[in-house]
Amino acid sequence: IATVIVIVLVALGIASMWASTGSKRTSARGGRGQDAGTPGLRSAMGSILPGGGAGFGGLGFGDMGSKAQAQPDRGAGANRGRRLSSTTGALSQPSTAPGPGPIPNFHQVQQVQQQQQQQQLPLPAASTPSQLPPAVMPSNFGPDAYFCTDLVVPRNCECVLLVPIRPIGSKPFEVTDTHGNSVLFVDVAQDHSAAKPRYTLTAGDGVTLAKFGPSEEADGFEFVLMRGQGDVFARLKRTDSSERYTLATRTDMRLYFWGAFQQRAVNITDDEGRLLATTEPAAELQLAAERAKETKKNPHYLLRVAPLMDVGLVLCGLLCIDHLTKGR
């Protein structure tokens, strides 16, 4: 019996050594892989670790590597989206709640919905709803349902950006992360065929991700959001009052922008009232970017986008409301 016990203990010791070696190799691979992709977009994301608390948490960017998590393939358009999603999943900064945004991986809709039903975590204190119910996708949801494939927030991440509070003019401006690093750029589109001005949303590598501007077909208040190729994906209209706007996509999804726009306290929800994104004055937060001269000269508001939501769709909608409605 003593001999058997000794043999078992030796075997357990060998197994433990192999497990430790494998873990170190996995950590090293994760650290080497973090440099791929778009640095600015990667820095704007933070992953949600198991056991997160209530609310959308703040982001810090570092400590990548051993906690890296692989992101799922996003079906059609994955080659474009992988540049962002394969790297943002490697961030290890804890967030404190998942969001309910549209699910980018249409092959795993049921799995994600079941996961969200089990969590039901509270929302930020500034949000009106008390809980995040599971997302419900449009019946025709498929691989062509994305506005900006590269800007879909990975499943275990949330996105936090600083958006300038100033009118869109002839000069481009930058959307940054909370450290002041440039992430996205907004500029006037070079489209001479358009009767009304168009604006572009581009990545740091100069790729046009989206276009937006006043609709040429409608006389009243209406804006169009187009993909980088120029095809119209969504239309934004003012609804019952100046404090509520509806964005309807060609996939039958509707987003509602409502709140105190002058105070930069806005909620973005879906048909069921589920919170997809929020904005709040950046001056209330102790962010590193606020100490930069550029940020002090040009006040910003904070945009926080939930996991699995399209940042481009939310951001372009807000820019239409925030900048292009002046004087209309």
UniProtKB/TrEMBL annotation:
Coiled-coil intervals, chain numbering: none
Stretches with biased composition (Polar residues): 84-96
Endpoints of the signal sequence: 1-19
Span list, region Disordered: 21-49, 63-130
Domain of life from the UniProt record: Eukaryota
Biased composition (Low complexity): 108-120
Keywords carried by this UniProt record: Signal
Protein's name in the database: Phospholipid scramblase
Species in which this protein is naturally found: Alexandrium catenella (Red tide dinoflagellate)
